[in-house]
Design a protein that fits this description.
- Helix content is 21%, strand content 24%.
- By secondary structure, it is an alpha/beta fold.
- The strands form three sheets. The chain has a three-stranded parallel sheet, with helices on one face.
- One of its GO terms (molecular function) is hydrolase activity.
- InterPro entries: Calcineurin-like_PHP (IPR004843), Metallo-depent_PP-like (IPR029052), Pantetheine_PDE (IPR052963).
């Protein structure tokens, strides 16, 4: 599988003033629509030695044993070259939060984290 990342952008038309900071187009039709093609990300497979996968998870709530069990069941080798974005609500207790993030870091090369409302109010008790 190939994931192609692309974004659109708007640019001002060329004018005789070049990069004049005071130039403002008057109509939306004066904008040029563009397309930027970024490098391809090839997904890794069990056989492949190249490629990268980016995974996103949220609402793990590992205070529940079945959710912590799911984290523990993730392969410790399969995702070593991949990236994981954890989009909040990992756990409600500090102990489970630290344990979960440690387990995820052991399984993925990079773990990016955005806190959720449950993470902002972690309790110290277990």
């Amino acid at each position: 599988m190939v994931l192609r990342l692309a974004s659109s952008f708007a640019s001002f038309p060329q004018s005789r003033w070049g990069l004049n900071p005071h130039f403002r187009p008057k109509r939306l039709s004066q904008f040029k629509r563009g397309y930027v093609e970024r490098a391809q990300i090839l997904s890794s497979s069990e056989d492949a030695t190249v490629g990268l996968q980016v995974f996103v998870v949220s609402d793990l709530h590992t205070d529940y044993s079945e959710n912590m069990e799911w984290v523990n069941c993730l392969s410790p080798t399969k995702y070593k070259k991949d990236v994981l974005l954890v989009a909040g609500d990992v756990a409600e207790t500090y102990k489970n939060f630290v344990l979960t993030m440690s387990l995820l870091k052991d399984r993925f090369e990079h773990v990016l984290y955005v806190p959720g409302n449950h993470d902002l109010w972690c309790r110290r008790d277990s």
